[in-house]
Design a protein that fits this description.
- 73% of the residues lie in helices and 3% in strands.
- It has 24 helices and 2 strands.
- It has a two-stranded antiparallel sheet with strand order 1-2.
- The relative contact order is 0.10.
Length: 493
C-alpha cells in the first residue's frame, strides 16, 4: 500500500490533461494537442500500474482508500477505493484511452483538441465511477460521463449522429433517474449515510428490496445494455467515430455490469435471489436472440455492436447464478470484451478510413492487399468467437461451467453462443477478407501503417496473453468475489 493518492491521480490526471489539451485552442495547434493528449493518456495509465503491483490479493477489503469530506451538511464524502472486482477496470480504462488517442491521431482533422480532450475527461470520469464508494460521488461521475460521449457521437459522428447522440443520452439518463431515487431511499434508511459500504449492511424488508432491485435493474440494464432496452447501442456505435465505438464497447458497457456487483447484489441480496430468474431470462435472450440478430447484419459496426450485447448477456448471466465460476468468469469476460471489442472496432475503423464504407458487401479479397491487417483481424474475429487460447474463450467457458453447475439447461442454452458467435464473426471475416479482390477500392488499399500496426499488435498481445495465462486476472478478483457471494448468501431477513 502507498500514501500516494493513486485513485485521485487516475481520475484527475486525465481530466486535467484534457483541460490542458483544450487550452491549445484551434486546429493550427493540432500537433501539439495530439502530443499532449498522448502524454496525458500515458500518465493516466502509468499511475494505475501500482494499483495492480501493490494490490493485496489475500483480502476482500477496499484498498488504496481515500476519504475526505465533500459536503459535510449532507454527509457526502469524497470516498474512493478499489477491490478485486473494480481494480482491473480502472487499469483497463486507462489502457484503452491510449489506444483511442493513437487511433484518432491522423483520422481526426477537425476540432482535434476538443476530440482528444473529450476522451481524456471521459476516461477520468469513468475511473471515478469504478472507484467511488460514496453514493452521490458515484452518481455524479456516472451522469457526468454521459456528456463527453454525447459530444463525441454528436460532433464527430456519422450522418445521423444527432439522433444517435440524443437517443443514447435519453436512454441512459432516464434509466439512472430511477437509480437516484433508490440512492435517496437508501440514504434515509441508513440514518443519513451515503456510504455504499454502509448500505451493504442494511437489513431491508423484502418489498423495498424488490423495488430497489428493479430500479437498479433498469438503470444498469440500460447501460449494459440488456434486452429489450438495447436499441440505443447499435445506433450509437454506427454513428460514433471509431474512438467513440471503442470506448463505448470496451468501457462504457462495463459500467452497468459493475453496478450490479457494487449495488444490486450486496445491497438487496434477497431480492437478487428472488428475481434472479428474470435477469437470467433476459440474459439468455440477449445471448441467443441477439446473436442471431448479429448474424443478419450487413453493416460491420452494427454486427459487432449486436455481438457486444450478446457477450454482455453472458456477463449478467454469470452474476446471477451465484457461484464463483460464474461471477469470476463474467468479470474475466468483461475484461476480455474490452480488449476484443475494442480491437474489432479499431479494425473496422482501419478499413473505413480507407474506403469510407462499413458495408460488408463493399469488401472482398482484402487479404491480397492488406495481409498484415488480415492476420490481426482474423485473431480478433476468432477471439470474438471464443476460440481457445484467446481471451474470449476463458470467460465464456467459466460462465458456461458455472451455469451448468447452477442448471444444466441454462448452461446448455448459454453454450449455443459459441456456435452463433463463430457463425457471425467468421461469416463477416470471410466476406470481407477472403475471395478475389472485389473492386478497385479494395485493389488500391494500403496495408497497416506503423501506428496502426502498433496499437493492433498491443491488443493482440493482450488477447493472447489473457487467453494463455488468465491467472493474474482471476487471482486479483478471487477474494472479493468469494466475500461478495458469502455476503449475498446470508439473508438479511
Amino acid at each position: 500500500m502507498t500514501d500516494i493518492p493513486l485513485l485521485s491521480l487516475a481520475i484527475w490526471a486525465p481530466i486535467l490533461g484534457g483541460l490542458l489539451v483544450l487550452a491549445t485552442g484551434s486546429d493550427r495547434n493540432a500537433p501539439l494537442a495530439r502530443m499532449l493528449a498522448l502524454a496525458a493518456a500515458v500518465v493516466g495509465f502509468v499511475v494505475t500500474i501500482p494499483l495492480y503491483t501493490g494490490f493485496d490479493t489475500t483480502t476482500s477489503a477496499m484498498q488504496f482508500v481515500e476519504l475526505g469530506s465533500w459536503v459535510p451538511r449532507f454527509n457526502i464524502n469524497y470516498h474512493l477505493g478499489v477491490d478485486g472486482i473494480s481494480v482491473w477496470f480502472v487499469i483497463l480504462n486507462a489502457f484503452i484511452t491510449i489506444m483511442v488517442v493513437m487511433a484518432g491521431w491522423k483520422v481526426i482533422e477537425d476540432r482535434v483538441a476538443q476530440y482528444m480532450a473529450a476522451f481524456l475527461i471521459m476516461s477520468g470520469l469513468m475511473n471515478g465511477i469504478f472507484s467511488a464508494l460514496d453514493g452521490v460521488l458515484f452518481y455524479v461521475f456516472f451522469e457526468a460521463s454521459l456528456i463527453p460521449m454525447y459530444l463525441i457521437i454528436g460532433v464527430w459522428g456519422g450522418p445521423n449522429r444527432v439522433y444517435a447522440a440524443i437517443k443514447f443520452f435519453l436512454y441512459t439518463l432516464l434509466g439512472s433517474l430511477l437509480m437516484l431515487i433508490a440512492l435517496l431511499y437508501l440514504f434515509m434508511q441508513s440514518g443519513g449515510s451515503f456510504s455504499i459500504l454502509d448500505w451493504h449492511q442494511l437489513p431491508l424488508p423484502m418489498e423495498p428490496q424488490v423495488l430497489i432491485f428493479l430500479a437498479f435493474l433498469i438503470a444498469f440494464g440500460v447501460k449494459v445494455p440488456m434486452w429489450p432496452v438495447h436499441t440505443w447501442l447499435p445506433d450509437a456505435h454506427v454513428e460514433a467515430p471509431t474512438g467513440g465505438s471503442v470506448v463505448l464497447a470496451a468501457i462504457a458497457l462495463k459500467l452497468g455490469a459493475y453496478g450490479f456487483l457494487r449495488f444490486s447484489l450486496p445491497i438487496v441480496p434477497d431480492a437478487a435471489h428472488e428475481l434472479a430468474w428474470l435477469v437470467i431470462t433476459l440474459s439468455l435472450i440477449a445471448v441467443v436472440y441477439i446473436g442471431f440478430v448479429a448474424l443478419v447484419q450487413a453493416d460491420m459496426k452494427k454486427l459487432v455492436a449486436y455481438s457486444s450485447i450478446s457477450h454482455m448477456g453472458f456477463v449478467t448471466l454469470g452474476f446471477f447464478i451465484f457461484n464463483p465460476l460464474g461471477v469470476e468468469g463474467a468479470l474475466v469476460q468483461m475484461i476480455s470484451h474490452g480488449f476484443v471489442s475494442g480491437a474489432m472496432f479499431l479494425c473496422i475503423g482501419v478499413l473505413y478510413d480507407r474506403v469510407h464504407s462499413r458495408q460488408i458487401a463493399d469488401y472482398g479479397g482484402v487479404v491480397h492487399t492488406m495481409p498484415k491487417f488480415a492476420a490481426f483481424f482474423m485473431l480478433f474475429a476468432m477471439a470474438n468467437s471464443g476460440l481457445p487460447a484467446t481471451s474470449g474463450f476463458v470467460g465464456e467457458f467459466m460462465v458456461v461451467l458455472g451455469a451448468v453447475q447452477y442448471n444444466f439447461w441454462i448452461g446448455f442454452i448459454a453454450a449455443t453462443t459459441l456456435i452463433v458467435g463463430a457463425a457471425y464473426s467468421l461469416w463477416m471475416y470471410k466476406r470481407v477478407v477472403f475471395g478475389k479482390v472485389a473492386n478497385k477500392h479494395v485493389a488500391e488499399l494500403e496495408d497497416l501503417s506503423g501506428r496502426e500496426f502498433a496499437f493492433l499488435a498491443i491488443l493482440a498481445f493482450c488477447v493472447l496473453a489473457m487467453g494463455l495465462y488468465p491467472y493474474p486476472f482471476t487471482e486479483v478478483m478471487h477474494a472479493s468475489v468469494n466475500e461478495l457471494l458469502r455476503h449475498v448468501a446470508v439473508s438479511k431477513l
